[in-house]
Amino acid sequence: MPMYRALLTGPDDFDGWREAARRFVMGGVPASQIDWQVEGEDASLLSFDALPPPRKGDAFSVPRSFIDLAESAILHRDRERFALLYALLVRVRDNPAMMEDRADPLLRRVEMLAKAVRRDMHKMRAFVRFREVEDDGTSRFVAWFEPDHHIIRANAGFFVRRFASMRWSILTPDLCIHWDGEVLTEGPGATRSDAPEGDPMEDAWKRYYAAIFNPARLKQRAMLSEMPRKYWRNLPEAALIPELVAGAQAREAAMIATSPKAPARPSGAPPAVASRPSNIAISWSALRDQAMACTRCPLYHDATQTIFGEGPLDAPLVLIGEQPGDQEDLAGRPFVGPAGQLLDRALDEAGIDRARLYVTNAVKHFKHERRGKRRIHQTPETSEIQACRWWLDQELDILRPRIIVALGVTAARALLGKAVTISRTRGAPIALESGAEGWVTIHPSFLLRVPDEARKAQERARFVEELREIGTRVKAIS
Amino acid sequence: MSALSVTEKLEILADAAKYDASCASSGTKKRDSATGRKGGLGSTEGMGICHAYAPDGRCISLLKILLTNSCIFDCHYCINRRSSDVRRARFTVKEVVDLTISFYRRNYIEGLFLSSGIIRSSDYTMEQMVGVARSLRDDHDFRGYIHLKTIPDADPELTHQAGLYADRLSINVELPTTQGLQQLAPEKDARRIEGAMAGMRSAMEDMGEARRKYRHAPRFAPAGQSTQMIVGADGADDRAIIRRARSLYDRHALRRVYYSAFSPIPSPSSVLPLKRPPLLREHRLYQSDWMMRFYGYSADDLDAATDPESGCLPLDIDPKLAWALRHRGIFPVDVNQAPREMLLRVPGLGVKAVDRILMSRRHRRLRLDDVARLTSSIVKLRPFLVACDWQPVHLADSADLKSSLGPMPAQLELFA
């Protein structure tokens, strides 16, 4: 069976995709025989066939609605987007009216991709925060933003139309754009430290944010659904949220208690701005506080406490375990029991600094069965893993590690969203939607359960070897 | 008064403005700063953008402030009334303009929503507000969004000028009934308020007429007018509020009516209730508003969704479900045959989902799975729908339908 390769100049190269897809369709190539590749991303090692010449008279056109949809969907980070769009294109060519059949599963899937991209573009327009810097005697406005998808080029026009008379730059991890008042230029990706630290207007903006909030109507869910925590790290005003929420109930109670005759209190002094922990620390501890009271699944009934993750918040490497065990449940910290001690030694042998990594669990309450005086570990069920992904996903959103390691099947399921077998997935990196690199390996407690000593030593060596490889990757990419 | 800094004033005058619910920045004409005369700032592209959300769940789209919170009126529900002892502050025109521009350049906001307490006279105050809008548009070539709160008693010529600079104008009717207004805002006059709204409507229509003849005729408040009612400060029930909203939409061609659950304010007047109404009541009113504007429900239909005793919409279930439970006879609706109006009455089906169903069913006979792909949740829909592989059994007749579809009682506290 021939295999064809289509090489695109960038992850958002719609014109390249369109041109290639047109030739493949005219050559009658099925979707399964095309390998879509983006220049600069890891290439596959397969060899490829030359593209068949298009047959004359096979020219075709598709409805405008398909082009609109494809232009958005192609910006999604999902690696399958090129192939999905191609499969849809083949069907639309034969039946252009299918674009109206919104119940079609393939069309629905592509629409969901496009919807996620549109939301990401909208959120970028909303949450970019410019900071003013002096530059050759004139002012320039610079922002740092981390989009979920490849939207920067597609979104540039909005900022040009809005801020045409300013000079500005938007820096992102993959691509930077600069506007000098006349021409838009592009540069390679940047890091947060390339962006300016603060802006004198931010104090006024924060005070406005605190003052416009009405403490008599706390509705955190509504806020979170539109401004999820992952955006907080780049929003100066978000640092105020925890204390505004904490103060809200008390302030309202005080207002009701104030009798009509009593003298008014001076309107609340602004919260001090100096020496505040970073936004990441604030959103992480707000998340942790909420997780402490979690009742999303029944496990909280019998467990002592929620065991949240711990470690440096800028750790490039995150390890996810299965769930806290008997000792962790009592101690309130992850990986302190027998499996944790085994993990510590293995990390040490693999040359990974335990103090530079963040450890957490897929399920944050201890699931067990009581036998006599002992509490025997039980494997969490899918519903419990699913309930707890709510916390894990947000935890990872805040930390944004470069590499995430799932220890065991439960963690792998939580990380990848589907059931996998360890033997088939271990040993190779997996590209995650967040842009991080995922690895799957065994849970250290597995080593405690292997009865045969020789096999145990063998398995342990393999585990250490995998950790070492991961450690090398961490050094390579961070 | 000792001299306050601009940020101190900002705190006082934003705090005073937060009881106004409106923050929309959508629905105006498209414009940008990349075309036309050089040196302009800003754009509007139809859809408004919420640049932040406060922990009260409200969107922050505009810089929403008062020019001053001093006021010669003494409306009981208002924190800025003459007899209240809040700290007073007053911006100069230039301070408001500079703040707006500085915030806008950093992408914090879509524009300005300016309101004011009344100082000296209605005309004087209105002149100052128009001055801000004029300076933004003329001195800074600002092309972002401007919403001005107009003062009913001001000279119509000033209102006219406001409409030429602003995207949206609004006057608050404040309370749903005339009696309520008399009792709580004795210096305001319902007839003058509605007179001013009618005046703005005709100005918008005249300008629309002129633009059809002359392409360069100026626009007047292209994003239309809106108003706000306070819920729970007087005795008006939901039925009265819905009827009032309907008649305001009909008579003054309003874009939006905002409902604001009365919040306890610092140093309240003794005429007021001390406790706030449940926030959920406000939410139910917004739902009923949507049902009138997008789902084809009349005020009479909505009457049928209210509780006969209290005259209020139920808090535990949404008004669409409440209406459906009172009209079980018309369900189930056949998803493959029913007309648009009927599909819109199915609890859980929104306008977009209905449009997707109408498109899809030209190409296939819809099964329950298909409907699930077109909507966000199928569970709520099932008892009310017939699909080609689905027929609800007795569900629409069962007495416990409400409890099986409504939320758990304990959840209510989360929203209250």
TrEMBL record, chain A:
Query: SUPFAM superfamilies from the xrefs?
Result: Uracil-DNA glycosylase-like
Bilayer-spanning residue ranges: none
Q: Name one GO biological process term.
A: DNA repair
One Pfam family per UniProt: DUF4130
Q: Which family does it belong to?
A: Belongs to the uracil-DNA glycosylase (UDG) superfamily. Type 4 (UDGa) family.
Question: Which InterPro entries does this one have?
Answer: DNA_repair_put, DUF4130, UDG_Type-4/5, Ura-DNA_glyco_family4, Uracil-DNA_glycosylase-like, Uracil-DNA_glycosylase-like_sf
Q: Give the UniProt keywords, A-Z.
A: 4Fe-4S, DNA damage, DNA repair, Hydrolase, Iron, Iron-sulfur, Metal-binding, Nucleotidyltransferase, Transferase
SMART domains, per database record: UDG, UreE_C
Looking at the record, the residues that make up the Uracil-DNA glycosylase-like domain are 308-468
Q: Give the protein's recorded name.
A: Type-4 uracil-DNA glycosylase
Q: Quote the NCBIfam families the UniProt record gives.
A: SAM_7_link_chp (TIGR03915), UDG_fam4 (TIGR00758), UDG_fam_dom (TIGR03914)
A molecular-function term among this protein's GO annotations:
deaminated base DNA N-glycosylase activity
Q: Give the signal sequence positions.
A: none
User: Has keyword DNA repair?
Assistant: yes
Automatic annotation (TrEMBL), chain B:
Read off the Gene3D superfamilies from this record: Aldolase class I
Q: Which cofactor does it need?
A: [4Fe-4S] cluster
Checking CDD domains in the record gives:
Radical_SAM
> Could you tell me the keywords of this UniProt record?
Iron, Iron-sulfur, Metal-binding, S-adenosyl-L-methionine
Range of residues in the leader sequence? none
Any one GO MF term held by the record is:
metal ion binding
Specify the Elp3/MiaA/NifB-like radical SAM core domain's residue ranges.
61-288
Tell me the superkingdom of the source: Bacteria
Q: Which NCBIfam families match?
A: rSAM_link_UDG
Q: What is this protein called?
A: Putative DNA modification/repair radical SAM protein
Q: Which organism was this protein described from?
A: Sphingobium vermicomposti
